[in-house]
Amino acid sequence: MAFTQEDYKALLSELQYLGDPKYKKFHEGLMPGISMAYGVRVPAMRAIAKRIVKEDPRGFLSHSAPASYEETMLRGLVIASMPLPIGERLALTESFLPLIDNWALCDTFCGAFKLKKPQDREEMWRFLLPLFDSEEEFTARFAIVMFLGHFVTEDKIDEGLGLLEGLRQPQYYIQMAAAWAVCECYVKFPQKTLPLLKRQTLPPFTQNKAIQKIRESYRVPGEDKEMLLSYKLP
Q1: How confident is the model over 225-233, as a mean pLDDT?
Q2: Contact partners, residue 89, CB within 8 Å, separation at least 6
Q3: Could you give the CA distance from residue 191 to residue 10 in angstroms, rounded to a whole number?
Q4: What is the pLDDT of residues 105-124, one digit of tens each?
């Protein structure tokens, strides 16, 4: 059944029904300057996106608009989950990236991607490579979070660490994502990641935040946590 404008109006009513004012207030507190229209929790958003993908995702995209936080998130979840050839999904992703204006939209979008085919992984990786250098805060964050969520693997760890070392953008959410990524790299590949921390070539905030996150991890031995303190920057 084709998704119509009336269906979209019904969807907005559903979002309003599912909204939780307490969650809205809490979540907005985590995203300074960003407002939610309804306060719908992410599991409910994923369930709606899954339903749309099964029914008529193209019809939904033709009617959807980034008029609210939840509408934008839902559009991203549908794009990430649509059963399309990777080239078509990447074209939709490229058009969606300018709509991302906060870390929650970015990270939820990244987490919705499934890259099961080797060729899909390789095409996504090639798509991400130039985005690491973007001056757009959440475009660069998208690349970093996709790396830490999907590509901290034997075949990509060395190239990924090099990309993280090359980051020089000053924006907060880029540097926080980079620190998170370095932590994930250290947890999975400590011997490959330690030389990066020893070189102390990351921006001071990223270097110190990465060490903090590694030291907070339950997956890192205590002796490593003590050793890493010597590589903090003033």
Answers
A1: 96
A2: 79, 80, 82
A3: 53
A4: 999 999 999 998 999 999 99
Sign of CA dihedral 128, 72, 138, 192: negative
Residues 6+ apart with CB under 8 A from 162: none
Residue whose token pair is 């020089």:
168
List strand residue ranges (DSSP E) for the chain, in order: none
**Portions of the chain given CATH number 1.25.40:** 115-234
Contact 152, 185 (CB under 8 A): yes
pLDDT recorded at residue 65: 86
pLDDT digits (tens, 9 = 90+) for 14-25: 999 999 999 999
CATH topology of domain 115-234: 1.25.40
pTM confidence score = 0.95
Polymer length of the chain: 234
Rounded to whole angstroms, the Cα distance separating 6 from 191 reads 56
